[in-house]
Specification:
alpha/beta, 8 helices, Rossmann fold, 7-stranded parallel beta sheet, 253 residues, 45% helix, globular
Length: 253
């Protein structure tokens, strides 16, 4: 009996053409899931899906912008048309256009970040919940951040949105738990991806961060994929409303 087997499950992973999202999609496919690769641009999505198929997995590409509700609706509709109901949703895509103090944050950027990083997660969750209610089971995972658990003078607004994701997760977990639907967050620390490049590309800043981390190094995307597989599978079937911190020990020192 394989507690991590996802055979027959349909999974949508946003922001999955690269980085953490792609690692999660690849991990799900290896576990037997049929995976929908989704991100803004078609070519990278197709490449990621083709790479999974080349290894014997099942994957399709459905490009969509998380800031566009109509495109989110189309993403779910096209998934159903291809494979039926959605069993697993991973909301990984996010933006971070503002670096620096909140004092300098404009209303427009605030609204844009809240829409992309929080409201889009609620849109997608509401779009797939009917499928999960019908099956009396399902797993929704928000990729949050340790930035949502502590203060920052560099990525403050990003942390605000990720804290909101954690609160959204808890409320949806309480609301949908009676239907067998689990909702959880993963809060990565600093992971080596293009998205986080600004936080580690300077050698001195990277060295300081590594020195502050118990394991003495930055994380890799595949190290988040394992946690997502736990939360998506029967191995995590009694976990809901939880935020799993994966940061190499940075938060404990």
């Amino acid at each position: 009996m394989n507690l991590f087997d996802l055979s027959g499950k349909v999974a949508i992973v946003t922001g999955s053409s690269r980085g953490i999202g792609r690692a999660i999609a690849e991990g799900f496919a290896e576990a037997g899931a049929r995976v929908v690769i989704s991100a803004r641009n078609e070519a990278p999505c197709e490449e990621a899906a083709a790479a999974i198929r080349a290894k014997g997995g099942e994957a399709i590409a459905i490009p969509a912008r998380i800031s566009d509700k109509a495109q989110m609706e189309s993403l779910v509709t096209k998934t159903r048309e291809k494979w039926g109901g959605v069993d697993i949703l991973v909301c990984n895509a996010a933006i971070n256009p503002h670096y620096g103090p909140l004092e300098d944050l404009t209303d427009q950027v605030f609204e844009r970040m809240m829409t992309n990083n929080v409201l889009s997660n609620l849109w997608l969750s509401k779009l797939v919940v009917a499928d999960m209610k019908a099956k009396r089971e399902g797993s929704i995972i928000f990729i949050s951040s340790t930035g949502g658990l502590k203060s920052s003078k560099v990525i403050a607004m990003y942390g605000v949105t990720k804290a909101a994701d954690i609160a959204l997760c808890r409320s949806l977990a309480a609301e949908w738990g009676p239907h067998g639907i689990r909702v959880n967050c993963i809060a990565p620390g600093l992971i080596v991806t293009d998205f986080a490049r600004a936080l580690y590309e300077d050698p001195e800043r990277r060295a300081r961060r590594e020195a502050q981390t118990v394991l003495g190094r930055l994380g890799q995307p595949e190290e988040i994929a394992g946690a997502a597989l736990l939360l998506a599978s029967r191995a995590g079937s009694y976990i809901t409303g939880h935020t799993l911190v994966i940061d190499g020990g940075t938060m404990i020192v």
